[in-house]
Amino acid sequence: MPYEKDHVLLTDLYELTMCASYFQEGLSRIATFDLFIRDFPKNRSYFIAAGLSEALSYLANLRFSREQIEFLRSKKIFKRDFLSYLKNLRFTGDVWAIPEGAVFFPNEPVLRVSAPIIEAQLVETCLLNTINLNTTIATKASRVVLAAEGRAVIDFSLRRTQGKDAGIKGSRASYIAGCLGTSNVLAGMKYNIPLFGTMAHSFVMSFKSEEESFRAYARSFPDSATLLVDTYDTLSGVKNAVKIAKELEQNGHKLKAIRLDSGNLVSLSRAARKILNRDGLAYVKIFASGNLDEYKISALIKKGAQIDAFGVGTAMGVSRDAPYCDVIYKLSELRDNQDIFPAMKLSKKKATYPGRKQVWRIFDKKGNFLKDVLGLENEKLRGKKLLVKVMEKGNLAYRPPSLEEIRKNAAANLAKLPLKYQQLTNSARYSVEISPQLNVLTERLMYELEKNQKSRTGHKKSKRK
What we know:
By secondary structure, this protein is an alpha/beta fold. The protein has helices at residues 13-25, 52-60, 66-74, 80-87, 117-122, 124-147, 164-176, 185-191, 201-205, 210-220, 234-250, 265-278, 294-302, 314-317, 403-416, 436-464; strands at residues 30-37, 47-48, 94-97, 103-104, 111-116, 152-155, 181-182, 226-228, 257-260, 285-288, 309-312, 327-336, 339-342, 357-363, 369-376, 384-385, 388-392, 395-396, 432-434. Strand 10 (285-288), helix 13 (294-302) and strand 11 (309-312) form a beta-alpha-beta unit. The chain is elongated.
């Protein structure tokens, strides 16, 4: 998704007020923040990284327009010198990231930002928004694709996503995750995603008879028609589709598919397949839609449904059972000239790991994922490093992959993820270990922070006496 000029204000007010205070205090330390997901939503056992391309576009083009500065001035919150500073603000930091399409797990930084503290703080909200939505939908879509067991899945979600922006991002994310294409024409244009479409019940109802509507549509699209057969009586609709298919054959064309959108999809698909095969139309595919998700698709396949492809809309486009990830952006280090200050949060159940970190992935003898290790970036650990440098001093530091390359990366990652981690429910928990040095640093810093906190608390109590 390309950067839009208004995205610099796509932030929470407190990001700007904190930045204004940093500016007033003259703070220019280099701050490192980790963007990661704290834990899995229900029935999730992995994440598919998505949204990096948009995030980098945002960072590379970060700037305030005159109109935006005037808007902030009108709120009478910020001082003139800070607003003047914002006029020339650019992102000048370094960014490390897990590439799009990669599988990752909780507490692993999917993005690591090191920049002057004002810059690093300002970008928090937009980065969280971007990575959260894209990763949530890509992960959901990958589950749907896995449930289909090699059958095609088409994204039908646009009409029920939360706005056009989410709809376009969702189509891209679902394509990364393995969907064959989308019904979203704008996403098709922006990202060159294959487009798919059938017809609506209103089209069938606009003609005197179902047969007449099918014939009209086939005349318009003789080599790509998919006929919706359940407007009135599904099996009668299938028989009418057979008539049209035979007429197409006489003129050198072939009916592409029929579509089932309601009813008992197991029994109807079996009956439809029998009718089609009986009339020599085994090549006509059966396409199913209608409030589907990974659980329903899995159940249909287990019950023997004769379905070749699935159109999945709302449940995938909004990730209905887990509509967000617990994605966070936390300070892990401050640098002031040569001085380094690791940072961590101690809140109950929300503690974070300090320092600049890297993730190492270890594989078994067959090349499958065995475990990950979260450690400090300068540790010498075995395995493949997952975080790669994508920005240096505000400029791109790597060749951005094409969408097709990202899609292939997702497929390759999932192929190496053992099946026990891909179950729709009750899946195994993948092992993410903490390295020795990170563990030592965490324990030491935790001790020092707790000691300092107790010391300050005790001092206040003694003064009250």
